[in-house]
Structures are given as structure tokens and as C-alpha cells.
């Protein structure tokens, strides 16, 4: 559970996939995160990756 709101800006290949419907062009997600704790958002990302069996 996150303790505050975060602003997440997605960039790079992941942004191309989301915005333009491009075919899978990347295996990572480049993001800028504003607000809160870096440790908290990393922990949340790790939990999501584990749940969906994704690589770190």
C-alpha cells in the first residue's frame, strides 16, 4: 500500500507502445517518478513484478 500519491512519467519505448500502439519495442520501462519515497515505489514495483512473474 502506498502512503501518498505519485506522479509517474513514462518515456522511451514503453511510451511508444502506450501512446502509438507500437509493437513491443522494449523490455523495460523508463519512468520519472515524483513524490513520496523512492524505496516505497521500488517496493511496490517489486511486488507487482512478483505477482505477474516479471523480471526485475
From TrEMBL:
Residues 5-41 form the DUF6036 domain. It comes from the Bacteria. Pfam families: DUF6036. This is DUF6036 domain-containing protein. It comes from Candidatus Magnetobacterium bavaricum.
